[in-house]
Amino acid sequence: MFRLLIDLGPIKIYSYGFMQFLAFLAGIMLAKKRASKNGITPNLIYDLSFWILIGGVAGGRLWYVIEHFDYFRANPFETVQVWHGGMVIYGGLILGFLAGFIYLKKNKIGFLKIADIVAPSITFGIFIGRIGCFLNGCCYGLQSEKIGIVFHDHSNSGLLPDAPIGIKVIPTQIFMSISALFLTIYLLLLDRRKVSQGETFCWLTIFYGIHRFSIDFLRHYEGNALVFKYITLSQFFSLILIATGITLLSFIILRNKKL
Questions:
Q1: Beta-carbon-side half-sphere exposure of residue 59 (alpha carbons within 13 Å)
Q2: Burial of residue 192, with CB atoms counted within 10 A of its CB: 0-12 exposed, 13-18 middle, 19 or more buried
Q3: How does residue 84 score in pLDDT terms, banded at 50, 70 and 90?
């Protein structure tokens, strides 16, 4: 693990928080560049990003706190210390999406057009953010002698226990990061050939759901993360995401045929 990037006494910069910041910044820059090609002003992207950030951080942290409620009940002051690590991406996506949707609705801005613009930024941010997970030692995989790697604790941070020290575990963080990068490239290429607004966003929900559902079979989870005894809570939401994307894409295709 490499949790602490810079330690200047009272000034500490953690790898997890830094990479999440970098991921969000990169996502904004990509969305800004794509927006300008579609006649959208940069200010709209900045304003939208602000509300998505608030919702995303709150949602991601809330889900994580719920999953580790006993720990945070005993350590309440660590609840807000998100820079130490401890976010669940689906919680961030759900509240971030709701915050962005409400903002666009309130300002009477077409959702699907903006969703297509922002879609590759989401996966590009995940690509960078998962590197932060790897450096932090969280979101690790199952034990494996064949494809596992060993984490070493260099920080002694006293945070929630993450990857076990000295035991080979699957680096699912890297698998997620690489998969998200390829998905970003695919969405950018797809967006050039799309026929209708909303297609890029629909394929994001479908393929990200497949991506997460598949990789979760390799991830380590505590017992309280399982639902229906067979799949994780994240896999359950992945199925919902896939179904939502297919339904919305089908609606868009059928609507175009009637026009």
A1: 18
A2: exposed
A3: low
Q: What is the phi-psi region of residue 161: left when phi exceeds 0, alpha when psi lies from -120 to 50, beta otherwise?
A: beta
The whole-angstrom separation of Cα 141 and Cα 48 is 34
Q: Pairing relation of β-strands 168-169 and 149-150?
A: antiparallel
Which residue shows structure tokens 């879609």?
Answer: 119
What are residue 201's phi and psi, to 5 degrees?
A: -65, -40
Q: State both tokens at 95.
A: 């509240």
CA distance 198 to 256: 12
- Distance CA(237)–CA(242), nearest Å, equals 9
pLDDT tens across 202-228, in order? 999 999 999 999 999 999 876 566 777
CB 126 within 8 A of CB 59: no
* 168-178 per-position pLDDT tens digit: 999 999 999 99
Q: Is the torsion defined by CA of 141, 178, 147, 236 positive or negative?
A: positive
